[in-house]
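Working notes for the structural subgroup meeting. M.R. asked for a predicted model of this chain before we commit to crystallization trials. I am recording the input and output together here so anyone reviewing the notebook later can reproduce the run.

Input as submitted:
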Amino acid sequence: MKGYDILGNIAIVKFDRKDNIQKKIGEAKRLLKQHRNVLTVLEKSDRFKGRLRTLKTKHILGINTKECLYKENNCVFRFNVETCYFSPRLSNERAEIASMCKKNENVLVLFGGVGPFAIVIAKNSKAKKVVSVELSRACNKYAIENVKRNKLQSRVEIVQGDVRKICPNMKEKFDRIVMARPNLKDSFLDCALPLITRNGIIHYYGFYEEIRVDELRELMELEAKKAKKKIKILKIKKAGDIGLRKYRYRVDLRVLN
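Returned structure, recorded in token form:
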């Protein structure tokens, strides 16, 4: 077994290629004993794919389901682990950004998934309003359910659609924008920059090898110049590894005009 993630009642395991089914079942039984809340063990049979970041899994042991109930940061989420991208490894990131949000801020979350950033922010800060935009209809269905489950209907708005089509039609501006984007070439910063208030903050997630992290700073400066915006990069930090010497980085930048 190479590793696993636990999403509430489901454990998603990455097995070694040489492991046979008997060994996989044995490892799964040990997981069920170690984690009493886990009722289902699934094998991760492929990596996340496409703009919607869907996943393929195979049932190994326990209840045969792909739907989980997951808790973090005083919030509860239900979603299908195959059709909806969700990273439990970003739990601390979500809590950290929530802690930065100030009273009465309007916050925009792009690539919002089933609502984890939006809901954690709304539940754990005094932000006035949080808008979450997500392309996937499957994710949005769960996001609406999760907003209700966490009793945040008055403060969290779920919008289904393509960021490139939704953002240009938005009338309001935001004090803070979270860009929990997929690992794509498109930065989407040209969608976010026009929507930020003066002195507003953008939290941008990018994927780079450690030796190429300077390219991330250069990208921020280039996109800001195109949008005729002045920016100040406050911090660049590692927000998790995604491969051999390759990391998810978070850039906190302030837009000065």
